[in-house]
Amino acid sequence: ALRGFAEALRAEAKAWGIGVSIVYPPDTETPGFAEEERTKPPETRRIGGAARRLSAEAVARAIVRGVERDRFTIAPGWRMALFHRAANPFAGIIHRRLDRLAKHASEKP
Question: pLDDT, tens digit, for every residue of 65-74?
């Protein structure tokens, strides 16, 4: 749902020069994550399993870098980036198509 909302917002806001990004953060070393670990269900623990956690600073740097580079998708860490690319191989094609549609819709006849 969030991705769909971000996709629609990205296409519509582009005409006004407004960039939109969506972030897929990995498990991040924060006090909130430490608390979550104490009560995490076994299924969730297994899914996260051996995934390496990033520091909050590393995630923040990746987000700032992604925004500065006008990236729509920001997936900190190589594992998250690989997962995103594998799950969304046609994102670039879809974005270009939506951008053309939005541009033509905003042009005056």
Answer: 999 999 999 9
